[in-house]
Design a protein that fits this description.
By secondary structure, the chain is an alpha/beta fold. Helix content is 38%, strand content 17%. The chain is built from 13 helices and 17 strands. It binds 4'-deoxy-4'-aminopyridoxal-5'-phosphate. 4'-deoxy-4'-aminopyridoxal-5'-phosphate binds next to helix 3.
Length: 413
């Protein structure tokens, strides 16, 4: 296959120079960063927005009458508005600021599911899930006597839709499903799956950590009830994220954590909780992280999510064609709909050894179970090597990966 053609629509090569960290040598080689699925790099616009806030505007939000507190509040709440329109939520009250996908899912498990689950009820997930979309459900099942059930995947790494549907019985109270698999890159056909679940009266939480950075996401069009995602996967700072939920559901849910900011009135007999979204935001939030998250959304929108999707799709196809040509390389995860993530094995080289050899050549990939141990068990593997692309990657990065893999193959021959 030839290199992806830059067209007017997908020519986002200029992006790369906006990401200062990419301009460096690692172990004597130009850095090739192929680990965006673990954490994406940040553009100068995000770094500068955070630094500007720290230098000029830092104060606690919401409670202060002074100018700096007003400025900080405006920036922090401005990020909520940006996130609201980015995922097409119907109201800013539906955007709960969290520390990330993990906290968002735990919030739903404890605040939405725990009060309603009874012994005999079921939570349904799939074999593709990240540990963050497994363990919170295990915990709430242990607390309530409910049962966790799991829909299987096929050898390509796709959810078996008939089996998923067959598991959607009256006993299932919630389906927790990833939009895009972080281990295999599989894009789930969510519109269809969510429609089936909703028709059967099942609530749906989507783990969107690996989707929102790479494609347009419209939570209203999807028809789910909750959608969770993280800032650091989408070129923003770590420790910030969002839980989107339908307003009526969030209204009815009890708070997840107690503390300052989530109350209107406190006395020793009774506490009146704050309105949405603040009811779920106890304590001083990650102000700088959310401001950076807002700047990340601005940046992604300026490039255009459709452009990013097309660019990454073309680059992923190019990478797959190059990887397939390497002797002894086996792709793990070959779903018909795949995002810009590719797992693979090279002969019987242990992924950690392979990752180390690649690092010596300046190529950063992720190795191991990718916080998705059941996926590895399904394929009978201790782990894989995973190359994941971001909007700033280009075909030179893929070519460097291939050179490094060929070298590793020779080292272990
Ligand atoms: N779900 C998926 C699919 C992920 O890839 C990740 C991060 N690897 C998470 C959940 C957890 O995200 P965070 O650590 O930001 O909470």
């Amino acid at each position: 296959m030839s290199q992806p053609q830059a067209t007017e629509a997908n020519d986002i090569a200029y992006c790369r120079s906006d990401f200062p960290v990419l301009d460096q040598a690692v172990n004597g080689h130009p850095l090739v960063y192929l680990d965006s699925a673990a954490s994406a790099q940040q553009p100068a616009a995000v770094i500068d927005a955070v630094a500007r806030y720290q230098r000029e505007d830092h104060a606690n939000v919401h409670r202060g009458v002074h100018t700096l507190s007003h400025r900080a509040t405006e920036l922090y709440e401005g990020a909520r508005d940006k996130l609201c329109s980015f995922i097409n939520a119907s109201s800013r009250a539906e955007i709960i600021h969290t520390s990330g996908t993990t906290e968002s899912i735990n919030l739903v498990a404890q605040s939405y599911c725990r009060p309603m689950l009874q012994a005999g009820d079921q939570i349904l997930i799939t074999w593709l899930e990240h540990h963050s979309n497994i363990v919170p459900w295990q915990l709430v099942c242990e607390q309530t006597g409910a049962e966790l059930i799991v829909a299987p995947i096929n050898d390509r790494g796709e959810v078996e839709l008939d089996e998923l549907r067959a598991l959607m019985t009256d006993r299932v109270k919630l389906l927790g499903i990833g939009h895009v698999s972080n281990a295999l890159g599989t894009i789930n056909p969510l519109l269809e799956i969510i429609a089936d679940a909703k028709q059967r009266g099942i609530s749906v939480l989507v783990d969107g950590a690996q989707a929102v950075p790479h494609m347009n996401v419209d939570v209203q069009a999807l028809g789910c009830d909750f959608y969770a995602f993280s800032s650091h996967k989408m070129i923003g700072p770590t420790g910030a994220g969002v839980l989107w939920g339908r307003e009526a559901l969030l209204e009815a849910m009890p708070p997840y954590k107690g503390g300052g900011d989530m109350i209107l009135e406190v006395n020793f007999e009774h506490t009146v909780f704050n309105e949405l979204p603040y009811k779920f935001e106890a304590g001083t939030p990650n102000i700088s992280g959310m401001i950076g998250f807002g700047a990340a959304v601005d940046y992604l929108q300026s490039v255009g999510m459709d452009n990013i999707y097309q660019h990454e799709k073309a680059l992923h196809s190019y990478m797959v064609s190059k990887l397939k040509a390497i002797d002894g390389l086996h792709l793990i995860g070959t779903a018909r709909e795949q995002a810009s993530v590719q797992s693979f094995r090279l002969n019987d080289i242990h992924p950690h050894d392979l990752g180390t050899i690649l690092d010596h050549q300046g190529v950063a990939v992720r190795t191991g179970h990718h916080c998705a141990m059941p996926v590895m068990q399904r394929f009978g593997l201790p782990g894989t090597t995973r190359a994941s692309l971001g909007l700033y990657n280009n075909s030179d990065d893929v070519d460097q990966l291939v050179v490094a893999l060929e070298k590793a193959r020779q080292v272990f021959a």
